[in-house]
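Standup notes, structure subgroup. Blocker cleared on the S-(P-nitrobenzyl)glutathione input:
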Amino acid sequence: MTITITAFERSPDGGKGLARDTRVRWALEEVGQPYQVRGVSFRAMKEPAHLAFHPFGQIPTYEEDDLALFETGSIVFHIAERCAGLLPDDANARARAITWIFAALSTVEPTILELATARVLESDKPWSKERLPLVEERVRNRLKQLSARLGNADWLDGTFSAGDLMMVSVLLRLKSSGILDEFPNLSAYVARGEARPAYKRAFAAQWEVNKPA
Ligand code: GTB
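Run returned:
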C-alpha cells in the first residue's frame, strides 16, 4: 500500500506544525504507516489537477492506491479504522473516541479558527477592538468545558485515541495566544500529545521542509 499526502510546498507558519498536514502525518506515524508527501504551491492548489483531489483547493489530501480523500477528520478516521493503534477495540469506547474526533472538529476548532481570523485578518478593522474580547470569551468558554471534562485524566476517554490526536492538534493552534495557559490541565494535555514519539516524528518531518532557510 502506497500512501501519498499533500502539504504546503512551503507552509506559511515556517515549520511550526500548524498546517493540517501535521495531524495526518501524526496519525500515520502513530500506526506505523510510511507515507510520501507531495508539496503543493498556493497556485497549484487552485488548479484542476489538485482540485480533482480537493474540491475546495486545500491541503492536505490523502491517496492510497485507488482511494483519494480530503478533510482531515475523514482522513484520520480512515487511518484509525484501517490500522490498529488509534481506536479502542471495545465498540462503545471506539464510538466515544470517534465522537471526540467530531467534537474537536465541529465544536472546538471553529471557535479557535474564529480567534485566528479575528487576530490576524481583522485586526485593522475599526470594530476589531470591540469584537476580539467576545471571540476570546467564546474560546475560553469552550476550553472551560473541555478542561472540566478532562479533569486530571491523561486523555479524554481512557487510552490515547484518534480523538485525542485531533483535539491536541486543534488546541495546538492556541499555544501562542496565551489562552491555553489559563487552563493548566489542557496545557499539560497538549504537552503530553507533543511528547509522543509519533508526534515528534511528524513534527520533524514537516519542519525539515518548512524551516526558515
Ligand atoms: N476542514 C479542512 C480539513 O480539516 O482538512 C480544512 C483544510 C484547510 O484549511 N487547509 C488549509 C489550506 O489549504 C491549510 S491548513 N489553506 C489554503 C487555502 O485555503 O487556500 C490551515 C492553516 C494554514 C496555515 C497555518 N499557518 O501558517 O499557521 C495554519 C493553518
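Discussed briefly. The CA atoms of residues 86 and 161 lie 5 Å apart.
Next: hand off to the docking folks.
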